[in-house]
Structure formats: C-alpha cells, structure tokens
C-alpha cells in the first residue's frame, strides 16, 4: 500500500512532529520520495510527491521571503516540507514566519529532531516504497497463478471471471469483428456500446497496438489477442492498479493461447464448410427446381437463411491464403469459404453483408472481386464475374463490385485522361460548334442515361418530349450518327460520360 505522511509521523524511531494546525486531509498525502535541498528555489528540481528536507541555511526569515520559498516548493509538487532542528543548525525550533507561510499555502511543515539525521528519514521512505513494490509483485504473482489455474478449464470465461474477482476490473473477449465471445461480469453488453469506437480502432490495426480512453467516466482499454494474426480483442473496463497492470501481459498471453487453441480445433468445421461450398458450386443435377432446393438446403445447414447470395473472390498471397480463408470463414455468416487449386480464396455471402468491411479487416490490400447478387443455385455465375474483376482490382487498389456503373467508372479512371478527352472531342466536336451545342449534348446525355426513354428525359429536362426528339434529330444530323445503331449509341454514351469526368 502507498506510504502516507501519517505513516512517517507514526514511526517512533523518526520522532517527526507537525507544526501548526494542518487542514483536514493534508496529512493523508502520499510520499513518493525523500530529498534534501537548501536552495532558495528548489521547486524546479522536484518531480512531485517528495518530502523536501532542509535546514534553512540560506532562508531569510522575513514573512515575504518565507511565503515565496513555500510557494516555490508547493509549485514543484512537494507533498510536505521538513525542517531539520538541533545543535549547530540555524534553527532550534520552527520559525513562526515559515510556519505561517506553510499554513497559508496548505503545505504540511514537519520538524526533524536533532538526534535523527536526514538519511534516516530517506531510508525509511525508500524502505516503505520497496515494501510496497514487493507487495505489488506478490499480488501480481498470486493473480497470475489464479489465472493460469483457470486457463486449465479450457475456456475464456473462467479466466475472465478469475481476473475480475482478483482485480475488480471488468473484462470481455471479443472476436475480430467486435462480437462478444465471453465476459467476466454481467455488464459487458453495456460497456461494449461505449467502447465501440475504441474496439474498431484497435481491430483495424491488427496486432500492432492497443488503445485506451475514457467514456462515461469509465476507463476503457482494448488489447489485441493472437500469436501471428488477430484472433480477438480484450476489453478492460476500469482502472487496473499497479499489481493488476503487471498481470495484463500475462492475461493477454493466456487468452491468446486459448483463442489459438480454438482456431486449431475449428479446422475440421472449416473443412466441412469448404466441402459444402464445393457442393453448392457443383453442376446441378435433376432440373432447376431440384437444384434450387438443394442449394437452399446447403445454406440452411450452415445457418444462412437468405434468398440472394453473391460470390466473392480474393487474391491473397500464396503463403497466407489458407489463413486468410480461415479469417473470412470466422467473420462471414455461414463460413462458406474455400481455397481453390489456383490459390484464390472464394466465398459465398449473403447479399446484405457489408463484405467490403470484412475484406478491409482481414485481407487489406489484396485484390478482390464482388460478384452480383444471385439466387443460391446460380451463385457460380456470380463467382465467375467476381474472378473476372481481379485485374481491375489490382489496378485500382480496392475491391471491385460487378455493377455496370462502377465498372464503367473504373475503366474511365484507368484510361489516360488526355486520350479519353480527345476521344470525346472527336465524337462531340460537331455539337460543340453548334449555336446551342451545350443544350444538345445535355439532352443527348440525359436520353442515353435514361435508357432511351423520351418521357423520362423530357421530365428530367423540363421540356416537351417533342423538343427532346427535335434536339436529338439535330444532334444526329450534326454528328452523322444514328440512335438505332448500337456502335453509335455506345460511342455517344462513352463520349458524354468522359465529358462528365467519368461520374455516374
């Protein structure tokens, strides 16, 4: 336990005395160290929490000088001031100006008798601090032994409950997506809400560091768990004391070992689900209805109740493809993930899953394609489209989704801007030279974007549909193009899209 000023005053071998009438609570200050100085301005040499001892050799006893001296000591963070008295020293009793100054400043003033050298006080303080540190280590070792014993129960909860019982600090283990796996108390859910930002911040950094904050007056701390890859997160709620803080690394190690053990034990289940994915992607037999029923049965067997799924393909480094697949199998509901013979990671996910967030967490920087939503029995086509987008993903540095508008934007962004603008100018320059060229181009772009709908284009532009037709007839005459020709329509669509900067 800490060393208080009252503990020093109670020691008969030191025979320290307190002067004046200290305010309540002043003598309950903790003493972190003891030091000696006869400087007139010792404050700048203090770190805080010291018992500063002096014989007052250079201190003039005018009230103003005493007030300035005491103010300097207090500003340096000293817990108390002690004046040495005795034969051959400047003072045989505490001078009243110094007593008054200490009383005004709220700084306890002690006296050290002639028979007690300052070194005796210093040794007493450091012996007490050493005893306190030994107690901290003993409590830490005891807690560590309790946690190690709890770890033999093969579970997260026993360790967390033992930790909370020993330290009074709440603890919970989450999976890499922040979902609760186990806790040491009943209030874990309420703590999760206030710690969500902190959890996301640590999870996004993998094993690279922890973080702490204060929310709602409660101290929160998140530590990553795992050996080589992030397997989970430890959330601590409450401020650990010195002995508990010393045990945190041990707790992290034990929890990491338990999560790694779970990861290895889950390997048969991951293989089973990989086999189910292969079965889902196999060529259907027995007609469309039978294939649909079979696909629904496979999804139901892994707890995935959905009518629309999509394929996801990730190009992970060969040496980490299996680990990436295992991470995705944990994060994706249903866990339908496999590694192909070519080393690609394939997954089937529900349409509503925010798969970009999952990929950002577990396969950051890896090329990835996201196929379009499809019925479960037709997910093979979604996977093929996802695989076809890997080249675009490598170039863009981000996952690419199989949507026409997004693919068009990517193609425009990847092309040389000067070349694209030259292409657009070549197609649209006859309209640029017309008196109402901007109006003609805007009408053409709107008509193409609405899929050739005259009514929708007229409503969007706020003009009669006959005006739209007249403008487009004029545009076709100027450009020499035909709206009923697929190649011409594509050239016109691409040129107007380039003029808009590739925006969709």
UniProtKB/TrEMBL annotation:
It comes from Streptomyces ochraceiscleroticus. Residues 440-498 form the PucR C-terminal helix-turn-helix domain. This is PucR family transcriptional regulator. InterPro entries: CdaR-like_regulators (IPR051448), PucR_C-HTH_dom (IPR025736), PucR_C-HTH_sf (IPR042070), PucR_dom (IPR012914). It holds the Pfam family HTH_30. PANTHER family: CARBOHYDRATE DIACID REGULATOR, DNA-BINDING TRANSCRIPTIONAL ACTIVATOR ADER. Residues 8-127 form the Purine catabolism PurC-like domain.
């Amino acid at each position: 336990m800490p060393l208080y000023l009252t503990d020093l005053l109670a020691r008969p071998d030191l025979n320290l005395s307190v002067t004046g009438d200290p305010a309540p609570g002043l003598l309950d200050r903790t003493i972190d160290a003891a030091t000696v100085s006869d400087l007139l301005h010792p404050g700048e040499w203090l770190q805080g929490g010291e018992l500063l001892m002096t014989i007052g050799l250079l201190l003039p006893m005018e009230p103003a000088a005493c007030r300035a001296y005491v103010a300097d000591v207090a500003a340096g963070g000293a817990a108390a001031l002690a004046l040495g008295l005795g034969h051959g020293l400047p003072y045989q009793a505490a001078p009243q100006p110094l007593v008054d100054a200490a009383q005004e400043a709220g700084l306890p003033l002690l006296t050290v008798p002639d028979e007690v050298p300052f070194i005796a006080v210093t040794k007493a303080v450091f012996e007490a601090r050493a005893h306190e540190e030994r107690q901290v280590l003993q409590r830490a070792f005891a807690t560590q032994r309790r946690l190690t014993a709890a770890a033999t129960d093969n579970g997260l909860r026993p360790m967390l409950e033992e930790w909370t019982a020993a330290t009074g600090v709440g603890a919970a283990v989450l999976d890499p997506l922040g979902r609760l796996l186990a806790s040491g108390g009943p209030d874990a859910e309420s703590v999760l809400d206030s710690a969500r930002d902190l959890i996301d911040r640590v999870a996004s950094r993998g094993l690279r560091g922890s973080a702490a904050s204060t929310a709602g007056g409660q101290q929160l701390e998140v530590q990553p768990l795992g050996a080589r890859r992030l397997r989970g997160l430890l959330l601590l709620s409450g401020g650990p004391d010195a002995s508990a803080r010393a045990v945190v690394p041990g707790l992290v190690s034990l929890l990491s070992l338990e999560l790694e053990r779970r990861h290895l034990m889950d390997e048969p289940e991951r293989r089973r689900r990989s086999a189910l994915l292969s079965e889902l992607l196999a060529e259907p037999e027995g007609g469309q209805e039978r294939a649909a029923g079979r696909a629904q049965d496979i999804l139901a067997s892994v707890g995935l109740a959905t009518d629309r799924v999509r394929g996801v393909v990730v190009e992970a480094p060969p040496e980490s493809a299996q680990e990436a697949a295992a991470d995705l199998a944990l994060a994706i509901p249903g866990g339908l993930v496999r590694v192909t013979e070519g080393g690609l990671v394939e997954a089937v996910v529900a349409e509503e899953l925010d798969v970009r967030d999952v990929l950002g967490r577990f396969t950051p920087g890896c090329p990835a394609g996201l196929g379009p939503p499809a019925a479960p029995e037709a997910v093979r086509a979604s996977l093929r489209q996802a695989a076809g987008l890997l080249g675009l993903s490598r170039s863009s540095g981000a996952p690419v989704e199989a949507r026409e508008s997004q693919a068009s934007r990517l193609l425009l962004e990847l092309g040389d801007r000067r070349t694209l603008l030259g292409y657009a100018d070549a197609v649209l320059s006859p309209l640029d030279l017309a008196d109402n060229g901007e109006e003609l181009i805007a009408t053409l772009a709107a008509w193409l974007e609405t899929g050739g709908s005259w009514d929708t284009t007229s409503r969007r532009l706020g003009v009669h549909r006959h005006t739209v037709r007249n403008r487009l007839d004029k545009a076709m005459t100027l450009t020499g193009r035909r709206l009923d020709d697929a190649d011409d329509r594509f050239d016109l669509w691409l040129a107007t899209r380039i003029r808009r900067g590739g925006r969709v």
